[in-house]
Design a protein that fits this description.
- There is one protein chain.
- The protein is of the alpha/beta class.
- The chain contains 4 helices and 7 strands.
- The strands form 2 sheets. The chain has a 5-stranded mixed β-sheet with strand order 1-2-4-6-7. Strands 3-5 form a two-stranded parallel sheet.
- The longest helix is centred in the C-terminal third of the chain and has 20 residues.
Length: 124
Amino acid sequence: MQFKIDTSEKFHAIRIKEPVLSANMTGELDACLKPLLKQDIKNVVLILQDIQNIDNAAGEHLVQLQQSFYEQSASFVICCLQKPVEKALDDAGLLELLNVAPTESEAWDIVHMEEIERELGDAL
């Protein structure tokens, strides 16, 4: 699986450079994403702009990945979904379970807001 990672002060922006995200790619996705939970910068913005098709198992895996990030006080935001991918996730009942933003910029904003919420929660 081809992907590109850009790291900023608060998050890793990961762009999957494949036309299809399928169940047999989830192991590679884990190998890319799960080690980030052990780093100082744990938040992820997953850019799916190049993905034109996703199967249900891969969509379910994204939900599980997102949950594992939130359990470790890290953000996991998906952005730039193409219409066929959005429809496939919606038809499978998964879209409403995912933290999705229309654009990369809006995904960054979500990560920053969640960081502020966590900092405020820790201060209480």
